[in-house]
Amino acid sequence: MELSVLLLLALLTGLVILLARGHPKARGHLPPGPRPLPVFGNLLQMDRGGLLKSFQRLRDKYGDVFTVYLGSRPVVILWGTEAIREALVDQAEAFSGRAQIAVIDQVFQGYGVVFANGERWKALRRFSLATMRDFGMGKRSVEERIQEEAQYLVEELRKSQGALQDPTFIFHSITSNIICSIVFGKRFAYRDPDFLRLLDMFYQSFALISSFSSQVFELYSGFLKYFPGAHRQIYRNLQEVKDFIGHSVEKHRETLDPNAPRDFIDTYLLRMDKEKSQPNSEFHHQNLLNTALSLFFAGTETTSTTLRYGFLLMLKYPHITEKVHKEIDQVIGSHRPPALDDRVKMPYTEAVIHEIQRFGDLIPIGVPHKVIKDTNFRGYIIPKNTEVYPILHSALFDSRYFDTPDTFNPNHFLDANGALTKNEAFMPFSVGKRICLGEGIARAELFLFFTTILQNFSVASPVAPEDIDLTPRECGVGKLPPIYQIQFLSR
Predict the structure, then answer these.
(1) How far apart are CA 245 and CA 163, in angstroms?
(2) Where is the signal peptide (predicted)?
């Protein structure tokens, strides 16, 4: 009998056994939700448009806190600003666990600062925050490095002489170079073939992670992992990047000066040496590779994708672009580079950047959490280790906090006097103990890159503003803007 037939018989036998056990049961008293099927969970309630649309429809029936079964496992969904803040802020410790994303679990396996839990996560997060804050042990500030990269960018865009181009590559390059200077202590030339290869791996992977097939994989990863699919390509891509990081670590080890650490890797290696006699130390090679990968990937993809959305929106709404140009001319002028101190004097530009982040909705489902203990929440008992999805989209498009949530409108962040206002629903970096540790660097990058480009260039497209389509290319874990062409014309 052929192996494929034996596998099919084994699968069918397992399915019959699972069906015989009845529907899944969970400890505690979970929030309401649709009744799941054995094995398949709430497959029948899933929308072909993906998880976000499915959750949106279920929220209309079950309220802001409900349970869905992704396959056989229950997941608690938090919808809306209040529900998310009550969980991640008011009960921050209980909801501080990190659940895995199935398509990249084989890459990280619970190691590294983003996907670690318990003492491992706490130790790596404290170290990463301190090291990124010190940023190369005081040689140059993050602001200076971004300003320097912004000038390289201006030179590169001038070389294009206003030709149409896809901005993906250039935005990837500038944001990646900032995180590279932190992690590896160097920036790369924009045409460096190794650099281009790494950026392509990240770009492919983020698109695949956000694809519909990866959302299906999230439901049935235990079964689908044995078959070809996006998860295997993602693994190959990110493993190639890890190999690059591994070679960089070897070079750092060979040239390490304990008295003059150059970057994140040097600082980590020194911590490894300090704790090498401690058997339970979290500062080992596996955590170094996965933390560096996490910072490298997140530091490249998130800000570059936000900038891509931002300039597509500037093409779509030229009257808003003109107002930003006017404020830049009034506050900064043309004879010096933008600085972070300019932010307080540029409320309109800041409001536009906030609205780009809100409307761009980069991580709509949010990176999954889990509760680290049995947790009482709104009268329900969520059992320890239950996964929790804080749907960031539901806060960023919350009509209770934004007058016209489905419209790109910088006035969402301005008061009647034109001053920048705080909005509790604005959480593009999430909230609570698991808030993005690169938030400060990302905010600095967005302001300095955005203003430097618009200080030096106007933007144009062969497509009329009213015909520019904002429909995302992918919308899953991440949301990717459509591919488009843009001209950067010297002012």
Answers:
(1) 35
(2) 1-22
Contact assessment for residue 103 and residue 218, using Cβ atoms and an 8 Å cutoff = yes
CA separation for the pair 193, 198 (Å, rounded) = 9
CA pair distance 368, 98, nearest whole angstrom = 6
Residue 140's nearest CA partner among 82, 93, 187 is 187
- pLDDT tens digits for 322-355? 999 999 999 999 999 999 999 999 999 999 999 9
- Cβ contact 479:363 at 8 Å: yes
Reported as a pLDDT band with limits 50, 70 and 90, residue 135 is: low
In which band, very low, low, confident or very high, does the pLDDT at 2 lie, cut at 50, 70 and 90? Answer: very low
Residue 198 and residue 241 in contact, taking contact as beta carbons nearer than 8 Å: yes
| 102 contacts 231 by C-beta, under 8 angstroms | yes
| 237 alpha-carbon distance from chain centroid | 17
Spatial separation of the C-alpha atoms in residues 263 and 250, rounded to whole Å: 14
More confident residue, 55 or 223: 55
Q: Quick one: tokens of 110?
A: 């619970």
- What whole-number distance in Å separates Cα of residue 83 and Cα of residue 31? 13
- How far is CA 168 from each of CA 255, 448, 481, rounded to the nearest angstrom? 34, 18, 10
Degrees, nearest 5: CA angle 148-152-154: 110
Whether residue 310 contacts residue 450, with contact meaning beta carbons closer than 8 Å, is answered with yes
Condensed to tens digits (0 to 9), the pLDDT of residues 213-238 reads 999 999 888 889 999 999 999 999 99
Pairing between strand 73-79 and 387-391? parallel
Tokens of 203: 């770009």
